[in-house]
Amino acid sequence: MSHFLSKLAAVAALVLLPFAALAAQSPETVSGATTVSPAEAVQLFDEGVAFIDVRKPSDYEAGRIPGAVHLDVKSALTQDALAEVVGADVPVVFYCNGHSCMRSSKAAEMAVSWGFGKVYYFRDGYPAWENAGFPIE
Q: Which N-terminal stretch is annotated as signal sequence (predicted)?
């Protein structure tokens, strides 16, 4: 019977695995924020808009968009911390590790809920930025 159960568990894992991947996808949009493509993100970068990297510290240290402020969404992003970087009426871009990372969507939601009115959600994040050949540090 245990052989049957192990085969059943293996089949169940194969059937459910695609659904787990779907669940890990970040939302395409965030209410109150503007989703931007890599081309739009680099335009905002060129305009001097603040970028907030909400990834974990080791990811930030491994490479980032030049000048990005690190506010880990799980430990450092607060209304006061964000207000020290940008005013509520100043554009700000949030990014993390792309479609499989939920941190930037969460950060954008938080900023909107705190009254920040010019929030940009760079869903494609650091991997797309780097793949496009844009500057990194």
A: 1-23
